[in-house]
Amino acid sequence: MSFAFLGGGSFGTAMANLAAKNGCDATLWVRDKRTVKSLHKTRINKKYLPNHKLDERLKFSHDLKTAVAGVDVIFVAVPSSAFREMLTNIKPFITHQAVVSLTKGMEKETFAMMSDIIQEVLPEVNFGVMSGPNLAVEIMDNMPTATVIASASEPLRKAVQTALHSAFFRVFASSDIKGVELGGALKNIYAIAMGMAAAYDVGENTKAMLLTRALAEMSRFGVAVGADPLTFLGLSGVGDLYATCSSVLSRNYRIGYMLGQGISLEHAIKKLGQTAEGVNTILQVHSRAKALGIYMPITHALHAVLYENKSALGVALNLMETGFRSDVEFVLPHDESNVRLSHEFSEVLKTSANAKPKDEIQSSDMP
Questions:
Q1: Which transformation does this protein catalyse, written as a reaction (predicted)?
Q2: Does residue 42 sit in the same domain as residue 143?
Q3: How far apart are CA 97 and CA 68, in angstroms?
Q4: Residue 129 in contact with residue 177, Cβ under 8 Å?
């Protein structure tokens, strides 16, 4: 089988290299002609993977028609902001090819997922999305990794498994396109939050709390827009969330860390030099959650810090003081009774604080 990988970033390069190592006919398309010449000469992606040699069988091209014409599957690994344009550009060359999105994000201002854009621009193609805890450098280092290919087409799922499955890279299959795609997009929000928390040198308790509450938010949002809640317990959900929130290799984590150090958002993005999808995803999900009435306090707090000039510390303290809730609320909607309970208990605390303690219990809190 033959495969084209569109996008010369770290992940697109890593996936193309994996397919070539598996003996597939694989072509990596890169926009810049000079970069393609450098790749042919050195077989190193100097900008994104400077310490890794690419497989000798991997082909390179800067010509879209040459890259995609006649292949079996096209993998698209460009930023979400360029995804629609890329599909429009390859449309004249589409005959029988299937399309798989490797992009984790949402289109700015439309809230469209990449699968939505594929169906709009190329309604006739078989398509899928791939997502999981997949840090490109670790994949290139042959560290055991797994991912999920989601598609309604079983032949496409098997084709992707054929291309990428190896001794170090396991490809699982799913039919829940929306859930797999949302997991990959939403986790970027919380990676920014975790990066900020790390900059404040928080403890493991705080990190565990943030990770758990993030998963609750992701699942609530996913269920509200039609995803299978169980998908968020898999690789594309909690798996990707954990990897992105715990690794300095994560672009969104690094953005959050710089923000926590007091660096402005604009400067942090410039310093990163790569796309951090979570910055845009916060805007999209904040707006959509408000419109749908989905309880997502961490997302709203990040929006307040990034786009409303609110103090990160003040917002964090407010989050800690907000309401009493059930611990396990994986897909539960926000229950207004929690707000009422919080108010009632606050009144009890105020009354207790104003009351004079009895002599016999003044000296100890032990029974």
A1: sn-glycerol 3-phosphate + NADP(+) = dihydroxyacetone phosphate + NADPH + H(+); sn-glycerol 3-phosphate + NAD(+) = dihydroxyacetone phosphate + NADH + H(+)
A2: yes
A3: 8
A4: yes
18 inside domain: yes
Q: Is the dihedral of CA 314, 320, 323, 328 positive or negative?
A: positive
Q: How far apart are CA 250 and CA 230, in angstroms?
A: 25
Total Cβ atoms within 10 A of residue 84:
19
- H or E element that contains 61: strand 59-61
Is 34 one of the annotated binding-site residues? no
The token pair that represents 317 in the structure block: 């303290």
pLDDT in tens, 96-128: 999 999 999 999 878 899 999 999 999 999 999
For the stretch 189-217, pLDDT in tens is 999 999 999 999 999 999 999 999 999 99
The whole-number pLDDT of residue 275 equals 80
136 located within any domain? yes
C-alpha closest to that of 342 among 327, 324, 325, 329: 324
The CATH number for 23's domain is 3.40.50.720
* CA-to-CA separations, 245 to 189, 232, 239, 278, in angstroms, rounded: 10, 15, 10, 12
For tokens 């805007």, name the residue.
Answer: 283
In this prediction the pTM is: 0.84
Q: Are 52 and 76 in contact (CB under 8 A)?
A: no
Same domain, 169 and 278: no
Q: d(Cα 311, Cα 322) in Å, to the nearest integer?
A: 17
CA distance 150 to 181: 8
93 is annotated as contributing to ligand binding? no
Both tokens of 53, joined, read 């040699």
In degrees rounded to 5, what are phi and psi of residue 233?
A: -90, 0
**Interior angle at CA 263, CA 261 and CA 267, nearest 5:** 150
Dig out the tokens for 124 from the structure. 């006739």
Q: Is 70 annotated as a binding residue?
A: no
**Domain that residue 20 falls in:** 2-175
Structure token pair of residue 66: 């040459």
Binding site annotation covers 337?
Answer: no
Q: Is 273 annotated as a binding residue?
A: no
| Phi, psi (deg, nearest 5) at residue 130 | -125, 135
Active site residues: 187
